[in-house]
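Archive transcription. Copying these from loose printouts into the bound notebook so they stop getting lost. Printout 1 of 2:
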Amino acid sequence: MNHSVPTSTPVAVKLAAFAEEAAPPSAVADVCRRLIFDIIGLSIAARHTDYVQAALASAVDEGSCTPYGHDRGLGLYDAALVNGTAAHGEDYDDTFEGGPIHAGAVIVSAVLAIAEKRGLDGKAVMRGIAVGSELMCRMSLVAPQATHKAGFHPTAIFGAPAAAAAVGAALGLDAATIGRALGISGSLASGIIEYLADGSSTKRLHAGAAAQAGLRAALLAEGGFTGPITVFDGSHGFYKAFAPSKTPDFVPLLDGLGKKWILETLAFKPYACGTMTQPFIDCVRKLAATGVLPADIVSITCKVGEGTVHRLWEPLAEKHRPPNGYAGKFSTPFCMAVGFLDGEAGLGQFTNERVKDPEVRALAAKISYEIDPNDPYPKNFTGHLKATLKDGTVHEFKQPYMRGGAHEPLPDAELAAKFEANLRFGGFDSGRIAALRSSLNEIAEGRKVNLRAARA
């Protein structure tokens, strides 16, 4: 049955009105504060990586905008590209159960860039982040799984219009202008998932490119450029292009918009890898806690949602032996193996050296899956394993939800520790960490935007 909202008013008109009028409550402001800290910490952690250096090398303009962790200023578009790419680069950033999408890397990067360029204050920043992140989450619910099925990356696709709305809200643009920006963004959205074939870096690029596209769309609209107001629901619209296998259901996008903020359920990752791998790492850590040794294990079978298989489980032989550390982040067998052996799955587990470790490969090769038709994915991300040992003993563990999400949010202390660990990984000392923390708190409190402490 088609549950699409029957309306003569284009969807983009309603989204633009929301972006102009939204008044985020305090609970949403707290999530936005967490996003700012998480995204900038992750960007600095990745500052010395080859992909961030390549993104920096591609920059063509010097300017007033900060590339986090680097001692230079960039132009608006280059800063958004570099920071979004860095923030999403290790797949350790926030996610949304139901999407899945990564809002923070796109939206925070776009909004802080325009804030530095235009001299906006923290109040405008927080409002822009709230609007963009809310819309990005909601847009991912219109045609669940269909974007991935079509070969596109939801963060890249939904990030462009969400960033356009975020920038428009931060700048205080009127609804008619934001509507044009949304229309323009539909022609700038892009990002395919073929990176799964070889672990190349284009997934990392998607967040930065979407931030850049959203900025471009908003500023084009501000200058008078036009775009189709039927961008989402027209006969040649956004969802027909990027999610053609499902009829779009706009109820989750529009229902309660501005009154109920689903952004409050955003998840912050405890592990530096693909979203749906995380509950399985929790399961295998429970197995390790029993004292079982890798040599004791004959096999581990996991019940999984069908929609995760093509990205995280297949081809299974290749997932047992990912070609590099980045590909390992999207191999559930590898993630489980390092989680069992190391007791964690942080930045240090996903290196090119670690994926070649014989002990890791041997354990990963024992892990397989079976599709569970009752798995709730994508509405909820769960984990399961059944381990059979050499003596015939069987251990079974379940994780009913993703830690860090709505069911079990990461406490402030754990997120603060993650922020500090990311900065230290990037080479910041205690003094610089304290200075940056103070600057980010000023932004979150609605005061001035000064990101000098985020530079090297």
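Printout 2 of 2:
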Amino acid sequence: MTDASPTLLVRAVLTAALLTAPGLSGPAAAQTAPPPPGLPAPVTTPTPAAGSLDALLLALRAAPGWRAADLTYRSAQLQLDSARLRAGLNLTAGASGSLSKVPWDGGDWTGNGTVTLSASLPVLPWSPLLEGVRSAERGVQTAALDLRAARGTLTAQLWQAYAGLRAAADALTLADAQVTLSAQLLEVARAQRTQGLLTESVLLDRQATLEAAQAGRDRAARAVTQARLGLTRLLGTDPLPATPDLSRPLPDLTPAGDEATLVARALAARPEVRRAQATLADALAGRDAAALGARLPDLTASVAAGQLASASGAAGRTVSGSLNFTTGVLGAQVSVPLREPRSPVSGVNLSLTASIPILGSTDGTVLRQAELGVQQAALAVDAARQSVELDVRTRVQAVQDERGALVAARTRVRAAALNVQAAQARLDAGLATRLDVAQATLNLTQAEQALSAQLDRVGVAGAALAQATADLDPLLLTLPAPLPTGGRP
């Protein structure tokens, strides 16, 4: 038996049984005939042309959560760009002016200005600026995984919301059928009461059944409205028409592979693990920097050449360079005075400056704190890996549970279809009424809806597993049909 839409089933079978047809004919019963016992029903149905699910997937790319994830990733990219600029070649132009009078008594005021051009570049591998670039690169990699995970989470939420909307629509269809059947039963009861075949209490009971069915129908209608509001909250808009086509079941996105393979893929791609690993790498870099700071004093080597002195005491045109071994930054500077100094003296000056703390140094404490940070980061990596592994194994079991329930749902549909055929046969033999056929048809509708809901639960569980293993690619889902599926037949 094919997985027909509950709406089509009610229109084709229930309406014919309750409203106009004197009895279910042979062709109508053939529509609900079960498949041969040896032919298994497929897990997923063929994907039709573009419909409501495609519209929802396209609208998801403009949802607030999707845009927020994009902005978060863009922020990480800008941080990397900023770190690269700070670690690149920096050029700075400056100017200074002075006015002096020597000696104080009888001297003349003398003014001069100097134009400078400075350049700096981190060259040593342990430079904090270069380490900042490496940390920002790890941040971008983690942000990319976070972006993919956020999109996957939104897609899984859309899967659940779409399944909820389909379930609410099916419940409304079933409620309409129950109202129709209860109305028929009440009409029969009134006729029997007129003939004196029923008591007043039985008639009131039938009337209460109709009223309860009508109240259930109102609840089902409100549930449909609530389900659409949930989609609107997720997407930021409602892209569906007033009466959407919800016949498309959710595709099965269960990733292929055994449990060990799925766990390995999740450990390699889940953002929680990669973020913990990036934090560990930052902690290791901080420990290495603290160890270097504890061993290496603040050491700077510099050289200056040019007009180092003059009769007025001011320097002339000079070129200088320096290398700070702690920060790993190589600097150069060119100074050109606007006025030539009197009697300049040219030469070269080499200097080496070291600063060694004797009392009150915190380098040892900083190093111990950095080592503790490394240990904490390593524990966080282990915790993240264990959490991801448990999550994947739990979702694998959920998929297996939903697939196991799918077999029983199909069996109930076959049993309900046989009951409809039996009721029709009894009606043809004069042993049953049209109400018996209608009740059997209603039971078949319920079984069909239960099967449809179970198929959706399989789809939701498969999408959740694909999200847990980082195999869910929301961008591919927005491409034209057919949607990708990795599910087992």
